Amino acid sequence: MTDKKRIVVVGGSAAGPKAAAKARRIDASAEVIILQKDPDLSMASCGYPYYVGGYFDDRNMLLCTPTGVVRNPQFYLNAKDIDARVNTEVLSIDRGSRRITYRDMLTGKTDTLSYDKLILAVGSTPRMPPVPGIDLEGITTLQSMRDADYLRKVGDEKIIKKAVVVGGGLIGIETCEALQLADIEITVVELLPQLLMFLDWELAKLVENHVRSKSANVITDNGVAEFLGENGKLTGVKLKNGTELECELAVVAIGVVPNTKLAREAGLAIGEKGGIDVNAFMQTSDPDIYAVGDCIETVNRITGKKVLAPYGDLANLQGRVAGENAASENSVTFPGTIQTGICKVFDYAAGSTGLSEAAARNLGYGDIVTVINASPDKPGFMQGLLIVTKLVADGKTGRILGAQCVGPGNVGKQIAQWAMAIQGKMTVEDIVNADLPYAPPFSLAIDHFIATAHILQNKMKGRMKGISARELKEKLDRKEAPFLIDTRGPDEFEQMRLGIGETLIPLGALRKRFNELPADKDREIVCFCKISLRGYEAALAIEARGWKNVKVLEGGIMAWPFPREK
Q1: pLDDT at 46 (0 to 100)
Q2: What's the pLDDT at 6?
Q3: How far apart are CA 15 and CA 291, in angstroms?
Q4: Element (H or E) spanning 544, and its range?
Q5: Measured distance CA(265)–CA(97) in Å, rounded
Q6: Sign of CA dihedral 178, 180, 186, 189
Q7: Are 292 and 119 in contact (CB under 8 A)?
Q8: CA proximity to 122, closest of 282, 256, 296
Q9: Strand partners of residue 100
Q10: 257 - beta bridge partners?
C-alpha cells in the first residue's frame, strides 16, 4: 500500500467515471484508478439509438464532455488526475488482502493491484432468448459502442431491407425508430400483451397506434421460437404461433441481467432480484467495497422493496454517492428510486414515474384511484400539442403513487413535475393549487399537471364518475352499451367520431333535449367530447335533472385507443 488512499473503480461507462471524479473532488491527494474492459470511457449509452438513427454523425459525441472534449484516458489524467486504463479486465477480488487481479486485454499480461476502497461499476449484460439460431450473423443488441457502430453501418449502407426488433421496451422502441429512419421495414415483436410495460395498457395502446402509424408493424402476445438462417446468416424469425417473418437483421432488446460474477466469486452478498446487495451508502457486504449502476439492487422509495433499476441517470447519481463515501468514510446516502423514465417514440414521448395502476394492484394497494386527462400542453394559438396523462393515487390519503404521460406534447415536463410530487409525498390536494410558471408559450393558464389533479379531486369527491376507454369497450363487447352522448358540435362530429352507437347532443343544445335521454333515471349514461371537458359539463347538467348513473369518458376521443369510425 502507498501512503495515499487508493480508490480503484472497476467499470468505465457511466457510474464508474462519475464515482472516480467525485472521489477526486473530495480527496485531492487520493490515488484514483479506473479499470475499464472496453476500449472507450464514459459512453453515453442512452444516446446510441440516436446515433444509429442519424440524429448526429460524429460518434465521438457519445464520449464527449458537455464542452466537446473526448473523455479518453489522457483527458482523465490531465483534467482530473485519474489513472484510467482501458482494455483492462478485472479477473478476481481478494478481499482478505484487498487486492484485485486484472488482465491487459491487448497483451494478455496479468497483474495485481491493491486498494483501500474498491467501487464496482460493472454494469449489465443483455438478456438473450434461449432459442435455436441465436448465434446467427445478423443478430445483435444495442448495449455497447460496438453494437451502435454496427447498426449505424447497417443504416448507412442501405442494404438491409427488413429487420425485427425483439422486445417492446424502452430500447426496443427507440431502436425501432432508429432503423425505420434508415428506411428499413420494421416489425416489433413483444412477448407480453403490450409495449412499454411501465405504462398501463390504455396508454401503451396509444403508443402502439402511433408506432403503427409510422409504418412499423407491431406484434404483441407472441415471442420468438427460433431464429432462421442459411449459411450462418439470419434470414428470418419464427414466432411461437408459427408465423415466420423474413428479415436480415434482428435486434434483441428484452432487458438486461446484472453483472455479478466478480462479486459472487468474491463472496459479496447478492440480493433476491439478482443484483449486488448494497446499503444506502452504496456499500456491499464488504465495507471496503462499494457497488453502483446496473449491477446492483436499489430501494423503491414508494414500496420500500428492492428493485433492479438500470437507468443511466441513477447510475450517475449512485456513482457520485459511492465516490464521495469512498473518499470520506460514508458521509452521504442514496435514498433509492421511484423508477422515472421516458423515451422518444417517433413524434411521441412516453414517460412514467412511480407506480402504474397495474403495478400498484400487484403490490397489494387495494384502495387506489386513477384518472386519465387528455389536453394540450399549451394554448392552441401557441401550437399546443396533445398529452394524455394517467394519474394513480392512494384512495384514502390522496397521496400520489404514480403518473404516466404519452403524446406529442411536452411529456418530459409533466413527468418531471409528477416525479417531484411523488418524492415529496404530495397529495392531490397539495397539487390542485400549485403555483407553477405560466405564460402561453409554455403552458395553459391551468397547466395540464394541475388540471389532472383537479379531475382526480373531482372524482375523489364524487363530483365526477369516470369510466376509462378500456372499461367502456369491455361493456360494448358484452353488449351492455350505456347511452352514449357526444357533446361536440356537428362539424366536429363529421370530421372525427368514435362510431360506437353514440348520440350527438351538443352541450349548448343539451338543456333543450333532455327529452331524448333514457326515461329510466337509473340507466347508465356516458358523456364525452374531444377531451371530455364538455362531457363533464354535460354529465353535471344531466345529474342535476335526476339521472343517477352518469359517467364521463376519461380523456375523451383523444384517449380512445381502439379503432374509430372516422
Answers
A1: 93
A2: 98
A3: 9
A4: helix 533-544
A5: 15
A6: positive
A7: yes
A8: 296
A9: 93, 113
A10: 125
Compute the distance between CA of residue 12 and CA of residue 121 in angstroms, rounded to an integer. Answer: 7
Per-residue pLDDT of 271-307, as tens digits, reads 999 999 999 999 999 999 999 999 999 999 999 999 9
Q: Hey, CA dihedral for 38, 39, 40, 46, is it positive or negative?
A: negative
Contact 529, 557 (CB under 8 A): yes
Q: Quickly tell me which residue has 392512494 as its cell.
A: 394
pLDDT attached to residue 3: 77
What 3-state DSSP class applies to 493? helix
**Three-state secondary-structure class, residue 156:** helix
Which residues, in sequence order, are CB contacts of 530 under 8 Å at separation 6+? 488, 492, 496, 556, 557, 558
Q: How far from each other are the two terminal CA atoms of the chain, in whole angstroms?
A: 75
Record the cell numbers describing residue 72, joined without a space: 479518453
Beta bridge partners, 404, equal 352, 390
Q: Report the C-alpha gap between 173 and 208 in whole angstroms.
A: 10
Residue entry with cell 404519452: 406
DSSP secondary structure letters along 40-84: -SS--GGGHHHHHTTS---GGGGGB-TTS-B--HHHHHHHH--EE
Q: Hey, which residues does 550 pair with through a beta bridge?
A: 525
**Integer Cα distance of 31 and 24 in angstroms:** 8
**Rounded distance, CA 497 to CA 541, Å?**
23
3-state secondary structure labels for all residues of 102-120: EEECCCCCEEEEECCEEEE
CB distance 53 to 182 below 8 Å? yes
Q: Which residues of the chain have pLDDT under 50?
A: 1
CA dihedral 374, 380, 383, 386 (to 10 degrees): 10
491-546 pLDDT tens trace: 999 999 999 999 999 999 999 999 999 999 999 999 999 999 999 999 999 999 99
Pairing of strands 348-354, 400-407: antiparallel
Distances (CA, A) of 418 to 200, 340, 460, 467, 543: 16, 10, 19, 23, 32
Give 269-329 as a 3 state SS string: CECCCCCECCCCCCECCCCCEEECHHHECEEECCCCCEECCCCHHHHHHHHHHHHHHHHHC
pLDDT of residue 329: 87
- Label residue 520 exposed, middle or buried (CB < 10 Å: 0-12, 13-18, 19+): exposed
